[in-house]
Prior knowledge:
By secondary structure, the protein is an all-beta fold. It has one domain (8-371). It has one helix and 39 strands. The protein has one helix spanning 357-364; strands spanning 8-9, 12-14, 17-19, 26-29, 34-36, 39-41, 44-46, 57-60, 66-68, 71-73, 76-77, 84-94, 97-99, 102-103, 110-120, 123-125, 128-129, 137-159, 166-186, 199-209, 212-218, 225-228, 231-235, 238-240, 243-244, 252-255, 259-263, 266-268, 271-272, 280-283, 288-292, 295-297, 300-301, 308-311, 319-323, 326-327, 336-337, 344-347, 368-371. It has a 34-stranded mixed β-sheet that branches. The chain has a five-stranded parallel β-sheet with strand order 3-7-11-14-17, with no helix packed on it. It comes from Blattamonas nauphoetae. InterPro entries: Beta_helix (IPR039448), Pectin_lyase_fold/virulence (IPR011050).
Amino acid sequence: MDGKxxxxxxxxxxxxxxxxxxxAGLFIQNCDPQLDDVNxxxxxxxxxxxxxxxxxxxxxxxxxxxxxxxxxxxCKSENQGAGGYLGGPSARIENCTFKLCQSAGFGxxxxxxxxxxxxxGCLIDQCQSTTIDTPLIFYDIPLGTLTITNTSIxxxxxxxxxxxxxxxxxxxxxxxNVQIVDITLNRPTxxxxxxxxxxxxxxxxxxxxxxxxxxxxxxxxxxxxSYTNSAGILxxxxxDTCIAEAGxxxxxxxxxxxSVAFVSCIFTACSSGNGDxxxxxxxxxxxxxxxxxxxxxxxxATGSGGGLFVSLVSRTTGTVKLxxxxxxxxxxxxxxxxxxxxxxYVHTTTVPSILNPGTHRRLLHHSKEYRNxxxxxx
Length: 378
């Protein structure tokens, strides 16, 4: 498909194959197609000596595709983008389904290389990536903008070091009402780490609102989200039964120069095995990490910080702020850890302060800024 075209509707692509070529189903170049009810089934991109991007659909050049009400089922790529590889200035995907898609490279559902992309009302279900660094949705445009709304990613498996469901390196990333449920991130080999079953985030700014992360499991660190050198805010998001099996951050890991704020977020039954921070682990090098309202309950760590673990060792001016955060009070919803700091552990080399449980509890329920303090429950 080349040049300006009229909208296409009701087209079926089934059992299409391409060897060392992009777009087994549909190749788009330098046009602005509007695809409605265009379905791709069992399309296969085979790789021999070259590449096979976008088994279902491939767009490149000055293309701005709009894809709506379409289905990508059982598409496979021996390289990247089993459902689609979308390049060009912009792309919009609305009310589409990606099911049982499988990729050996970036993007079992989609690899997106558009400068601006919007994903709305989509379902990604039972997709799988099989080799090193293969998230379901891959977006690596440092100056780009990615928006995902009203979308569900479920019952899928990622393999790699950074991100199971999502891997995003961009200028701006926004998610609203996104459900990421029952996602597993496998470790490719013993020589690689695995972090962020729901997503690996490296952005200038990110804003997540009303999102749900449930049953996200990483073979190592960051059961749900991993932030590296990012600025982000999460509002009214829930983390339920997220697990880092062999590392820090049962639900969230924050590292590098990241500055992340949690507003009215709820953490329940998250855990870190062989690590610290049952709900959140943060290494504050610059800026701050903050928690306002919300709750942390029934989370656990084999190390320290059954609820939250924050390290201020690398930068003495780092801060952690807590305001009206509720921690478990009754025996049924207490946070647990094998080390120190049942609810919160703040690690620092300066001005250590150990507070008894009563004082610790009282302080956490008032607006405070903690700078270079070391808190733990006796």
